[in-house]
Design goal:
It comes from Methylobacterium aquaticum. By secondary structure, the protein is an alpha/beta fold. It has helices at residues 2-32, 39-49, 117-124, 149-163, 176-188, 213-219, 223-230, 248-258, 260-276, 281-297, 305-317, 362-365, 391-407, and strands at residues 65-68, 71-83, 86-93, 101-105, 128-134, 168-172, 197-201, 232-233, 244-246, 303-304, 327-328, 331-332, 342-348, 374-379.
């Protein structure tokens, strides 16, 4: 019933977008002719109507070229390996010289991997970049089987093997846990494709440290409550009909409720910038920036129910990794087995999702690593997203990450 109710809302949003297009088309001649309010107000309202609702369509990465030195180098997306649940995607560059190969491990938390577009764009100047491009669970047929916590780890191992020896991991947010697990699994099995280094950015390694609202929510109810209230069945109109999922619209709703006032003001700002946009270039640019952000933010994907529930139980409620009691395919894995994969952790001073200390806990877990193979960076003045995107990421954090990867290449 939960998903059926959302589908009704989606149909209503689709009708709202259609009426918005009609209304915008009717006001465009007036605004282009130079008429001011109320024509511009109506046109702005129509644009807001055209943005109603969420989408389950993956946005484009939109990275066609990257500047290396004094020239623009073309970039093309190349699928290297695909499974029903994810694609190992490479951003191939037209150049001869080799660069360190980096696998960007994207979160599986309600958004597509394109949320890391800025992270990838920055890394591309100095690295041969791959990303875990996760698929929307509602589009995966039941015949493809389950996708749980261990399956995520197995995908990372498989992707690293496809990239080859000497690759590096850069994990962002939630998959820092799976990145650690994959590195330990490969170390214990002496897999030649084990990562040369891993950079863990704002990830929930030990959520008992400085708990955030997200951590408190995850531990406030038994796991049966999450399964009963947050898990839905994909309706018949989709390819994954019958699959049990944690809907992406639930996750986005939860994130928005944490900062409701900020999102409300963001949409009010968008409306007024749109109302002035055709006459003020600065407002037009600001409106485009806000629209780009929400285009990405409102593009959601569903998670397989087993992955979501196992993650909540393992990472947040039982703190299994934090106690070095994690298992893989039923067998215990020991983080101290990691001896050849250098470790860097990055945290944000104002992070309200993964607070200070939660990611740094990985250093204590990886007791088999020599001190010179470990590094930590606390980025001042940034929240969660500022750890891996924005100006401070590009100018302050990224140079340290780049140097760390190159030192262990």
């Amino acid at each position: 019933m939960l998903y059926d109710a959302f589908e009704v809302q989606s149909d209503l949003a689709s009708a709202t977008r259609a009426w918005g297009r009609v209304l915008h088309g009717g006001t465009s001649p007036w605004t282009r002719a130079g008429y001011g309010a109320p024509a511009t107000w109506v046109a702005a309202a129509a644009r807001m109507m055209m943005r109603a609702g969420l989408t389950h369509t993956r946005p484009s990465y939109g990275i066609d070229a990257v500047r290396i030195g004094n020239r623009e180098v073309p970039v093309t997306e190349e699928p290297v390996l695909s499974t029903p649940f994810g694609t190992l995607l490479r951003f191939r560059k037209d150049m001869v010289s080799e660069q360190p190969r980096v696998l960007v491990v994207a979160p599986l938390s309600g958004h597509f991997g394109t949320l890391l577009r800025g992270t990838v764009r920055t890394l591309l100047a100095d690295h041969d970049v791959y990303i875990t491009d996760w698929h929307n669970a509602r589009d995966v047929p039941l015949s493809a089987g389950r996708f749980g916590f261990d399956d995520y780890v197995a995908h990372l191992v498989q992707f690293l093997e496809a990239i080859g020896e000497g690759a590096h991991l850069v994990a962002v947010c939630q998959p820092c846990v799976q990145a650690l697990a994959a590195a330990a699994v490969m170390a214990e099995s002496r897999n030649a494709a084990h990562p040369a280094s891993m950079t863990l950015m704002a990830g929930p390694v030990d959520t008992r440290i400085n708990p955030t609202k997200v951590n408190e929510l995850a531990t406030s109810r038994p796991i049966a409550w999450f399964e009963r209230n947050l898990i839905a069945t994909v309706p018949r109109r989709h390819a994954g009909a019958g699959r049990r999922v944690y809907p992406g619209f639930m996750q986005v709703g939860a994130f928005m409720s944490m900062n409701a006032a900020r999102h409300m003001h963001g949409h009010l700002d968008l409306y007024w910038h749109l109302a002035e946009g055709e006459t003020a270039k600065e407002s037009q640019a600001k409106a485009a920036q806000i629209e780009t952000f929400y285009d990405e933010y409102f593009a959601v994907l569903d998670l397989a129910a087993e992955f979501y529930l196992e993650t909540v139980k393992t990472v947040f409620q039982d703190a299994t990794l934090a106690q070095n009691k994690l298992t893989f395919r039923g067998s215990p894995i020991d983080m101290r087995a990691i001896r050849k994969t250098a470790l860097m952790t990055v945290e944000g001073e104002r992070d309200d999702i993964c607070s200070v200390g939660q990611t740094m806990a990985a250093h204590d877990l990886c007791g088999g690593l020599k001190p010179f193979r470990k590094r930590h960076h606390l980025q001042a003045g940034v929240g969660h997203y500022g750890v891996f995107s924005g100006r401070k990421w590009e100018s302050q954090t990224y140079p340290l990450v780049r140097n760390f990867i190159q030192a262990n290449a």
